[in-house]
Amino acid sequence: MMRERGIRFDGRPATVKHHSARGRVIRNAGNFTRGSQLLTHEVLMTWQGVKLPVVIGFFVFVILTSLILAFRMEDHEIQLVLMKFYALAWDMVDFDPHHVINLTLPTDRVIRVPMGAVPYNSAVRIAWSKAMHCALAAAIGAVFLTVPLSVWFVDVSRRRGIEILKERHERGAMLVERAVLLREIAAHNHAELAREITRIDPGLDPARVAATSPARRLIGDEAREIGEVRESLHDVLLLMDVFRHRLDDAHHPASRAKASQGR
Question: What is the pTM of this model?
Answer without folding.
Answer: 0.51
